[in-house]
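Subject: design request, 176 residues
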């Protein structure tokens, strides 16, 4: 039993690592249709059905193997293995979302930033000066050149809202 669990965990773990590397480095996007629903493994930045199943099986079988090796009860080993498998899926999904958080959508325009909120990265001086703001546009964080019509400087870290777009600059005001 322990030998079988070892081979299951090594095989599924190896396939999982290979798929993750192909996804992260090569951009391989594996999707398939299940009935009328579309199950996509990568486009949302999440783990997906295939990688989720591989993660669950690999981690669960490894934990069950370790617990059975230390002479724990079979029911306890399966229970703890199941919990560890679910936790591994949640952790891996969180890590993938962090890695793909700043993935850029190249199809955007300055108008997509209109009325969006963000934060000041580089101080925006009053008058004719400009600074830089970070605005989330179409799921990607963008650095935009910004100006303000306010009579005072807008400090770094201040929350702002885009009110107008003029050429390569966005005009911002403090958000409340």
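Subject: RE: design request

Done. Sequence follows.
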């Amino acid at each position: 039993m322990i030998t079988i669990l070892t081979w299951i965990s090594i095989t599924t773990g190896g396939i999982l690592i290979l798929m993750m590397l192909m996804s992260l480095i090569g951009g391989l996007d594996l999707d398939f249709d299940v009935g009328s629903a579309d199950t996509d493994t990568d486009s949302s930045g999440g783990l997906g059905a295939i990688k989720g199943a591989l993660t669950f099986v690999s981690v669960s079988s490894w934990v069950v193997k370790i617990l059975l090796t230390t002479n724990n009860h079979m029911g306890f080993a399966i229970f703890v293995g199941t919990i560890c498998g679910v936790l591994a899926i949640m952790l891996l999904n969180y890590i993938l979302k962090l890695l793909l958080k700043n993935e850029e959508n190249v199809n955007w325009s300055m108008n997509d930033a209109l009325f969006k909120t963000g934060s000041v990265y580089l101080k925006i001086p009053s008058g004719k000066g400009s600074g830089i703001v970070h605005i989330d546009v179409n799921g990607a964080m963008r650095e935009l050149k910004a100006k303000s019509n306010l009579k005072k400087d807008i400090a770094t870290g201040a929350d702002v809202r885009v009110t107008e777009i003029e050429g390569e600059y966005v005009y911002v005001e403090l958000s409340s």
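Residues 110-174 form a domain with the OB fold (Dihydrolipoamide Acetyltransferase, E2P) fold (CATH 2.40.50.140).
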